[in-house]
Design a protein that fits this description.
Length: 232
């Protein structure tokens, strides 16, 4: 049996539960229901939130959702879709601002810093972390967006921002939409090209991290702490 929101016991309604227990105690479905505010004829807002999660196959896929995809779901019109996208973007910006000045001292640190935004992307993105002399993050910047299996980039764009930001170190990262972070021959060639350009402008490439789903590949770890790319 399905209940409308008004028919639910007051103590079970998402807004009332948030006031009583705090936002952290609520499920993804309940948080979405609060953002959506209302359902549609015969369908409660909680049910709309549930359909949204099912359609997108989980909260992890919200990063790349579009207005067109959202408005296909019964109970979500353009106004609600815009509100959801605004909330998603605001969350990204809050997280980004909190992460600035974080120290990146290992490939695992870099992976944890990047994976939330990069592991769910449907196209290959080339993203750089620019670090100061203390290895603190100055800025994270998307350099280019490629296809489902190819990263398109110009090394000059990487170092243009390094110079503008007065960065001492750069961590290059890309995602593999397939979910498998294993490096390819093209990834190795790309890394060699970037490292060579970095030497020319005296900016060190600390690592090249490939982000998959739940896993990563680090060129630095693969070289066991030696030079990022062998001379051979």
């Amino acid at each position: 049996m399905k209940y409308t929101l008004k028919e639910m016991p007051i103590e079970e309604r998402p807004r009332e539960r948030l006031v009583k227990y705090g936002a952290k105690a609520l499920s993804n479905q309940e948080l979405l229901a609060i953002l959506l505010t209302t359902g549609t004829k015969g369908v409660s807002v909680v049910e709309v939130a549930s359909r949204l999660l099912i359609t997108l196959k989980g909260i992890q896929n919200f990063n790349e959702v579009t207005i067109k995809e959202l408005t296909k779901i019964t109970g979500i019109g353009t106004a609600k879709a815009i509100m959801l996208l605004a909330a998603i973007e605001l969350g990204k910006r809050i997280n980004s601002n909190q992460s600035k000045h974080q120290v990146i001292s290992s490939p695992q640190d870099a992976y944890h810093y990047l994976q939330a935004n990069m592991s769910t992307l449907s196209q290959e993105h080339l993203v750089c972390l620019y670090l100061n002399v203390k290895s603190e993050v100055i800025e994270q910047r998307t350099i280019s967006i490629g296809t489902v299996n190819t990263a398109v980039f110009n090394p000059k764009d990487i170092f243009k921002w390094a110079l503008k930001l007065s960065a001492s170190f750069v961590i290059v990262s890309q995602n593999h939409p397939s979910g498998d972070p294993t490096s390819s021959s093209n990834d190795t060639l790309m890394t060699k090209k970037i490292v060579a350009t970095g030497k020319a402008v005296d900016i060190e490439i600390v690592d090249h991290i490939i982000i998959g789903k739940g896993h990563y590949y680090s060129f630095l770890e693969h070289r066991q702490g030696k030079r990022l790319i062998a001379d051979d």
